[in-house]
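Morning, I've got a small favour to ask if you have a moment. The fold is given in discrete form, as structure tokens running alongside the sequence. I'd be grateful if you could look everything over and explain what you see. No rush at all, and the record is pasted right below.
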Amino acid sequence: QQVSAMGDRETCNHSEVTDFILVGFRVRPELHILLFLLFLLVYTMILLGNIGMMVIIMFDPRLNTPMYFFLGNLSFIDLFYSSVIAPKAMINFWSESKSISYAGCVTQFFLFGLFIVTEGFLLAAMAYDRFIAICNPLLYTVQMSTHLCVQLVAGSYFCGCITSVLHTSMTFALSFCASRTIDHFYCDTRPLQRLSCSDLFTLKMVSFTFSGLIVFPTIIVIIVSYLYIVSTVLKIPSTEGRQKAFSTCSSHLGVVSVLYGAVSFMYLTPDTFPELSKVASLCYTLLTPMLNPLIYSLRNKHVKEALYKLVEKKSTIL
């Protein structure tokens, strides 16, 4: 009877949850304005950088190559998964209740999972693209066909969607009877698990398994691709040729390092310092989407030339 009563209480508590409270950053109220302005600045740069990158790639025929096709999709993903997080976080800096509806939390959780996993697979596809371009340049246009590029991007979205559907459905099947207060600035896995009074063993095992199935294959593809790339580049006799080959990969390596470094720190370290976890999560929710277009535009001659050409064209029209 006690077990039955406990189950009824958990079910009741779960059904009664209509919203959550996003605590955000535990700072003095007067610092909320500063944080709001910081978030606004970063989000504005994300919008300008990623929309600008997509416009440049779409309208410049010289960028109609597999590398820029992937880069355009990377900008699209960065734009949308940061938009899942940033606007709500900025609203909560001014809100007294800091609430998010149950449906809103589910949606935010699902979309963020979808885009972050998709980006991981897309970065692996981009590493494979660089491997073919440098190690087999004569066969590049044949091997990296439009059909294959579309398949790789579609496959990335498919893996992201399947993973996010399963993770979201299992997470929100939990009974949230401990509290409605999420100690984070968005709906994330660990803070939600802390609110649950359900047995988390199955969820944690499934999450660990899926993390392994996502992270290890993508990391292996990236590492193996770059081992072949380094081996090939070192055989190039001229220093200029080696520098040119490495320059096409340095931007991608920078993006991979920031994303995987932040995610690894966030989910592989003990969950004992929530405030530190919030700062780490900023790296991949806002910092990475802001830096990606800057990294690729500042270190890429073709993107800079396309940007100058677009600006000149606009100036002529005006």
Q: What stands out?
A: Strands lie at 19-22, 99-101, 181-182. The longest helix spans residues 102-135. Residues 1-15 have pLDDT under 50 and may be disordered.
